[in-house]
Every structure is written in structure tokens, then in C-alpha cells.
Design brief:
CATH superfamily of the largest domain: Cation efflux protein, cytoplasmic domain
CATH architecture of the largest domain: 2-Layer Sandwich
Number of helices: 6
Helix content: 40-55%
Structural class: alpha+beta
CATH topology of the largest domain: Alpha-Beta Plaits
Number of domains: 2
Radius of gyration: 29 Å
Distance between the termini: 61 Å
Strand order of the largest sheet: 3-4-5
Strand content: 15-25%
Number of strands: 5
CATH class of the largest domain: Alpha Beta
Length: 198
């Protein structure tokens, strides 16, 4: 849904910018006179000295009481819509339920938060991992995991990643009866105080 909305919005914005850019280009370079073609009456720029809004157009509604509230309301809606869109891009879509094969032909639904909690606790119990967070994304029948692991100073990243794949994720796959559970893991070093030697 979000991907489709993004594509539609980007296509509309791109189309609007293309039309405005072409109209400015045709008018500013006076292409209709050089290439001998005519533009429609509604075309905003017909020559290099044309402006988007004339003095009359810019000042026509200033004395009306409704003008500034409408302008401010439209700009506020545009800003809020832009912020909502930006936050929607940054927010990872969390998977609420996972469809698993229960063996009876009906299937079952597993809460996504339950599997996230298991992944977190399993990862934290692994040697060298001090803290972790897990988020499930994707679709019900094809989930994916995003993990962030805080590594202890003595941990070896290669061993942690190998153990994460062969133990933590493998247990999650087998317990949820998933054929595959792709995962993206980000490793972060945990800050610690320097040890004092006396």
C-alpha cells in the first residue's frame, strides 16, 4: 500500500514539475517564436518577459477577509501532509501476525510481537550480546526480521553473526514452522567504562 502510494505521489509531483518546467522553458527561451508554433491561450508563459502572477493577480484578494486564513490553512495542510509522508517512510511497517502451517490444513496465526520477544531474548542469551531489539516486517506468509544487537567488548562479530544464524534464527524458523526467515542484523558496540588497574 505504502509503495503504491509513494509511486502515485511521486508520479504526480514529477508530472506537475515537468509541465511547469516545460512551460517556463518554452516561455523564457521564446521557443514558440523561434520554432514557429503557437501555444494555447491558457499557457502561463508566452514570452521571456512574462511573469507567473501579474501585480493584479497577486494583490486581487488581499483586501478580502477570507484570503489570508485560506492561504495559511492550505500551507498548513501541505506541511502536515509532507511531515506525515516523511514519517511514514521512516517508520518500518511492523508485522502484527504471521501465518504458520499447523499441519492440519487450516493454518494458524502467530502474534508478531511474540516472535519478536523470542528473538530478542534468544539473541540476548547468546554470549557476547548485551542487548538486542527485533522487529518483524514483510507479509504474513513471508516474514523477515530486523535485529539490532549491542555487542560486548569481548565479542567477535563473526561468531555472533554465525551463532545468530545457526542458533537463534534457526530455532525461530523451526518453532514457527517457517520455511525461511531472512534477517538483517546491525551490530553496535556497547560503550563501557575503562577498567582501572591498581
Amino acid at each position: 500500500m505504502r509503495t503504491t502510494l509513494n509511486r502515485v505521489l511521486l508520479a504526480l509531483i514529477g508530472l506537475i514539475l515537468l509541465v511547469v518546467g516545460l512551460s517556463v522553458l518554452v516561455g523564457s527561451l521564446d521557443l514558440q517564436r523561434h520554432w514557429d508554433f503557437t501555444v494555447p491561450d491558457w499557457w502561463p508563459f508566452t514570452g521571456p518577459k512574462d511573469v507567473l502572477l501579474t501585480d493584479h493577480d497577486r494583490t486581487r484578494y488581499r483586501s478580502d477577509g477570507w484570503w489570508w486564513p485560506v492561504v495559511i490553512a492550505v500551507l498548513a495542510v501541505l506541511v502536515l501532509a509532507s511531515l506525515w509522508w516523511l514519517l511514514a517512510q521512516a517508520r518500518a511497517r511492523r508485522l502484527r501476525q504471521i501465518r504458520i502451517d499447523s499441519g492440519d490444513g487450516q493454518g494458524a496465526l502467530l502474534r508478531g510481537r511474540a516472535l519478536e520477544s523470542v528473538l530478542r531474548s534468544e539473541a540476548e542469551s547468546y554470549q557476547g550480546v548485551e542487548w538486542s531489539s527485533a522487529v518483524l516486517t514483510g507479509r504474513r506468509g513471508n516474514p523477515a526480521a530486523r535485529l539490532v544487537l549491542g555487542l560486548a567488548p569481548h565479542a567477535t562479530p563473526e561468531e555472533v553473526v554465525t551463532g545468530l544464524d545457526t542458533q537463534v534464527l534457526e530455532r525461530a524458523r523451526s518453532s514457527a514452522n517457517l520455511p525461511d526467515l531472512p534477517a538483517e542484523a546491525r551490530l553496535r558496540a556497547v560503550r563501557h567504562r575503562a577498567a582501572r588497574v591498581t
